[in-house]
Write a structure and sequence with these properties.
Blueprint lengths: L1 H16 L2 H10 L10 E12 L8 E10 L4 H7 L1 H13 L3 H4 L2 H21 L9 E9 L1
Antiparallel strand pairs: 1-2, 2-3
Helix pairs in contact: 4-6
């Protein structure tokens, strides 16, 4: 009896460690990568214009934004949720300190904050935030 158990255990271990047992199941579980589409830029019109908090050199900020993606459905998502997205992006822009935006690091931090806000808001309404690959300034004016 012990010999049969040892032989069966050894055979099972050999089968599992040889890799043949997992080969079929790995192929079934592995997902095929989703093919990326052509790069697309979606303009967020009109440009964003906000009053900046008092105390800085500039009092007004005007920013043009474009969203970079490779997913063709992102344009529809941005249109469908446009008013809500604009509202939250305007909030982020209006809370910026003008003095920080004069440096490249300050503008890059603002760009990252806007991209994070866009992704978070899309996630909150059940959209796929990973489809937003980048957010770019196409205009940046402070007065």
């Amino acid at each position: 009896m012990v010999t049969v158990l040892l032989f069966g255990s050894g055979l099972a271990a050999w089968y599992l460690l040889s890799g043949d047992a997992d080969q079929g199941s790995v192929d079934e579980v592995a997902e095929e990568p989703v093919p990326l589409g052509e790069p697309t830029y979606h303009v967020m019109d009109p440009v964003f214009v906000v009053n900046l908090p008092p105390g800085g050199k500039a009092r007004m900020l005007q920013v043009g934004l474009q969203v970079y993606t490779r997913a063709p459905e992102v344009g529809e998502v941005l249109k469908r949720h446009g008013p809500m997205l604009r509202h939250h992006l305007l909030d982020v822009l209006a809370n910026q300190q003008a003095d920080a935006l004069y440096s490249r690091a300050g503008r890059e931090a603002l760009q990252a904050a806007l991209q994070d806000e866009l992704r978070n808001r899309l996630t909150a309404v059940g959209e796929d935030k990973a489809q937003i690959e980048a957010l770019y300034f196409t205009q940046f004016v402070m007065q």
